[in-house]
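Running low. Any example?
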Amino acid sequence: MDANTSRILVTNFGDEPLDVPSRTLLGKATACGPGSISTLQAHAFPLYDPATPSSPPFSHTGSPLDRFEFDDQPLAAQAQEKATALVDDAFRVGIDEDGNLHTAVVALLRQHKEAFSLDGRPGHIQGVAMRIPVEDTSRLSAEPPRRVSPEKRQAIDKELAQLLAWGVVEEGSSPVSRSAPPFT
């Protein structure tokens, strides 16, 4: 970075998404040159003799980080499996340094086992009426049905029949209709 740098690209290679609003302060920079000392962190930037470099110069250009580089390495896969244990043939739970399961996590998973669709169908809530809060009902309007080919209509009807049979969805009586894409 130099005085002409006005923007930097920050990349998240983690598993969790991170939303950073515009103009968020990501760090604090202090301008230091060779031989100066930062009083904030007490780091020194000493001058070195240019005739004796501290390390040999790079003989090749660096390549960008490949986030999938370690996917096929068996040691990485073993490390993930060693740090977890399979519980009830369904849940992979982390273990502590002594190799013990986190009992609170196991108890929570077992308590809410029905929420995870272990039987292969989408999860659903039983015994509770679900409502959809709408801020201004006067602005609601019905949308005409979407036109699809007979083949697509047959696939949609088949999926809806399966979801109805599972009890995941139910027939609606709302005066307002909106398209809902079926998924599998």
